[in-house]
Design goal:
single chain; mainly alpha; Endonuclease Iii, domain 2; Endonuclease III, domain 1; 2 domains; 12 helices; alkylated DNA binding; Alkylbase_DNA_Glycosylase/TA
C-alpha cells in the first residue's frame, strides 16, 4: 500500500497528525536476509547500539568467506570460538539454537512471509532466545508488515503515555489507542519512536 494512503489514515488521529508534521519517515522494506537479521537481533539484545554493532562485526569476521554465515557453519564452531568475539555464554547458545532450528527445518525462514503475524511470532518464539518483542521487531523491520504494534516496547508505551496522557503500564488503554491507527500501526510506531528523540 502506498505510504501516502497510510499517512492519510494516520492523520485522522489529530495527536499523531502533529507528530507527522514534524518528521518524514518511510515504511521499512522487506529484508533480503532474514537469517542475518535474526542473528543480529539476538546479538543486540540488552546492548547499546554501538556495543552490539562492534560484537556483531567481530562475529561476522569468524566467517570471512561469506557476508552472512550459513547455519551449518555456526554449528561447526565451538562455544569458545563464538564467545571470543564478545558473545555471552547465553547468546552463544541462542545463536546455536537458531541455527539448529533452521538446519532441522523446524523453522523455514523462506516461508515466513506467507504466514500471519501471530503465526510468525509463534514460529520465532519457539527458538530459544527469541521473545515476542524481538519477533515483533522482525515483523516490522524484516518482513515489512504494516500493522504491528509492540506493547512490550517500553519506548512505544512511553511515547503513547506522554502524547495521550495515559499510564504507560496501562496496556489495555494503549492497545485501544493503537487500534485507531490500524491497519498501519507499524508506521505509527516509527513516528512514535521518532517523537522520543526530542523529548
Amino acid at each position: 500500500m502506498e505510504n501516502s494512503l497510510a499517512i492519510k489514515h494516520l492523520r485522522q488521529d489529530p495527536v499523531l497528525s502533529c507528530i507527522i508534521d514534524n518528521y518524514t519517515i518511510s515504511s521499512p522494506k522487506p529484508s533480503t536476509n532474514l537469517f542475518r537479521d535474526l542473528l543480529e537481533a539476538i546479538v543486540s539484545q540488552q546492548l547499546s547500539n554501538k556495543a552490539a554493532a562492534t560484537i556483531f562485526d567481530r562475529f561476522l569476521t569468524l566467517f570471512p568467506k561469506e557476508k552472512t554465515p550459513r547455519p551449518e557453519e555456526i554449528l561447526k564452531l565451538s562455544d569458545e570460538t563464538l564467545r571470543s568475539c564478545g558473545l555471552s555464554r547465553q547468546k552463544t547458545s541462542y545463536l546455536k539454537s537458531l541455527a539448529e532450528e533452521i538446519v532441522s527445518n523446524k523453522l523455514v525462514l523462506e516461508n515466513l512471509h506467507l504466514l500471519s503475524d501471530e503465526t510468525v511470532i509463534s514460529s520465532l518464539t519457539t527458538v530459544k532466545g527469541i521473545g515476542r518483542w524481538t519477533a515483533e521487531m522482525f515483523l516490522i523491520f524484516s518482513l515489512g508488515r504494516q500493522d504491528t504494534f509492540s506493547l512490550g516496547d517500553l519506548g512505544l508505551r512511553a511515547a503513547v503515555a506522554k502524547l495521550y496522557g495515559v499510564d504507560r503500564e496501562d496496556k489495555i488503554k494503549i492497545e485501544a489507542i493503537s487500534q485507531i491507527w490500524s491497519p498501519y500501526r507499524s508506521l505509527a510506531c516509527l513516528y512514535l519512536w521518532k517523537s522520543l528523540e526530542n523529548s
